[in-house]
């Protein structure tokens, strides 16, 4: 990422926050959607700071990270959250999920900086890792995910989530194992994908893929920004799944994957997917 690209992303994210600030200032009705607006702004501020705080001496060393088109997302935000026109709270909730979905690419930026393995790089990583984990906790992401999974009306998925949750916090309290956490999260990802594919099928024997599922279940239809964001989650899921499988097979070697990062990314993935589908 060169300085020009860094500056462009930062300006676009600031543009999003400027628009949100105007909405917060001019709409008295905004009280009804303040929780969703604040989530979007908090996530956007994190993403902007991740870009802004990349140490200058590392900019040319970092590989390009595929990320959503911020300009397109900003235009979509201004469409669904106009000033001073009326707004649709469901679309605002959808954009919270869209902005959350982008965090996987920003998480990759954090990990790429950490890989440089200097004290400054490690401090940058820890600052933003802890900050985003705090945002997730403040936004009660784990409970939001629990609520969304319950809407699937699939008891197996509910039980898989609870086992994953318990396994992760057992590891945090040093009474669990990495392989158990990885296994439970991977099983949960399988269950959610299976439940969505089942809902999207038009017959019991129909074989459909993630893209087809997205076209059929995405909010606002197959041409929507929501649908494209949902389709993008397939690669996020694939990367998570590969990391979890590597941990399960004990093949990490010296490249130990932080399960806190995986838990954060898994919650965001599930939250995004289930928020953007008609379940």
Describe the protein's architecture and organization.
The protein has 279 residues and is an all-alpha fold. Helix 10 runs antiparallel to helix 11 (225-248). It starts with a helix and ends with a helix. The chain folds into two domains: 3-138, no CATH class; 141-275. The relative contact order is 0.11. It has twelve helices and no strands. It has helices at residues 3-26, 34-52, 70-80, 89-101, 103-114, 119-138, 141-150, 155-172, 178-200, 210-217, 225-248, 259-275. The longest helix has 24 residues, at 3-26. The protein is globular. Helix content is 71%, strand content 0%. The mean pLDDT is 91.
What is this entry, summarized?
With 279 residues, this protein is an all-alpha fold. The chain has helices spanning 3-26, 34-52, 70-80, 89-101, 103-114, 119-138, 141-150, 155-172, 178-200, 210-217, 225-248, 259-275. It is globular.
Nearest-integer average pLDDT? 91
Individual helix count: 12
Number of DSSP strands?
Answer: 0
- What amount of the residues lies in strands? under 5%
Estimated radius of gyration: 19 Å
Unreliable spans are: none
From the helix content, strand content and strand pairing, which structural class follows?
Answer: mainly alpha
Q: How is the biggest beta sheet arranged? A: none
- Give the ordered list of helices and strands: HHHHHHHHHHHH
């Amino acid at each position: 990422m060169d300085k020009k690209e860094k500056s462009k992303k930062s300006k676009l994210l600031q543009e999003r926050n400027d628009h949100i600030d105007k909405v917060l200032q001019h709409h008295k009705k905004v009280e009804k959607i303040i929780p969703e607006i604040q989530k979007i702004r908090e996530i956007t501020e994190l993403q902007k700071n991740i870009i802004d705080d990349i140490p200058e001496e590392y900019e040319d060393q970092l590989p390009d990270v595929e990320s959503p088109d911020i300009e397109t997302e900003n235009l979509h935000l201004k469409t669904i959250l106009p000033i001073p026109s009326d707004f649709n709270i469901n679309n605002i909730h959808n954009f919270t999920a869209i902005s959350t979905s982008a965090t996987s690419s920003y998480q990759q930026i954090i990990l790429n900086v950490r890989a440089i393995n200097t004290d400054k790089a490690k401090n940058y990583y820890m600052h933003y890792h802890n900050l985003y984990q705090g945002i997730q906790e403040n936004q009660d992401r784990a409970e939001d995910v629990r609520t969304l999974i319950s809407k699937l009306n699939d008891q197996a998925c509910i039980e898989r989530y609870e086992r994953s949750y318990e396994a992760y916090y057992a590891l945090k309290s040093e009474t669990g194992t990495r392989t158990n956490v990885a296994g439970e999260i991977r099983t949960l990802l399988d269950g959610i994908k299976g439940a969505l594919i089942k809902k999207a099928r038009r017959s019991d024997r129909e074989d459909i893929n993630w893209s087809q599922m997205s076209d059929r279940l995405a909010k606002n239809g197959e041409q929507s920004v929501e649908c494209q964001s949902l389709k993008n989650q397939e690669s996020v899921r694939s990367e998570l799944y590969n990391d979890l499988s590597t941990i399960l097979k004990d093949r990490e070697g010296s490249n130990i994957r932080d399960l806190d990062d995986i838990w954060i990314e898994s919650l965001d993935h599930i939250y995004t997917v289930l928020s953007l589908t008609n379940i």
